[in-house]
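Quick start: what a row looks like.
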Amino acid sequence: MKVHELAPAPGSTHPRRRVGRGTGGKGGKTAGRGTKGQGARNNIKPGFEGGQLPLVQRIPKLKGFKNPFRVEYNVVNLDTLEAFDGSVISPDTLRERGLVHKHGLVTVLGRGELSRKVEVHAHAFSAAARAAIEAKGGTVTVLDLPFRGRPPAKGNALTNR
């Protein structure tokens, strides 16, 4: 058997029906569209729903823009660090106490006062927070971000691929 000898089984195929080619065969004259009425004509717009308000008009337009590459931080202020017992503060220790969400990056901001020396590890610091911690003799360690370049995209249109 060779490739050029292959053929479908006898009776398994039949020719396509050519409608609208005269009254001599099946599908002549009205070509299977019935008589009169909207369905017999050729000018219905795509998406037309018979006078019902079309889907395109029922759905509101999307407003604004949501950046899929936004980096979101869990915020910790200096007054939270002041109330925290222990001299070494890291995202893991903050998560254990329930002060930040179990996922995400941690940033330290400068609201409140600090009265003791602390060692703080976080992903970002504001200038005021860094100055306040170092003024009390503490140390600031910036942790590496868990991604290189920009973060992975968020949102259904970008992640369901």
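That is the whole record. The radius of gyration is 35 Å. The chain has five helices and six strands.
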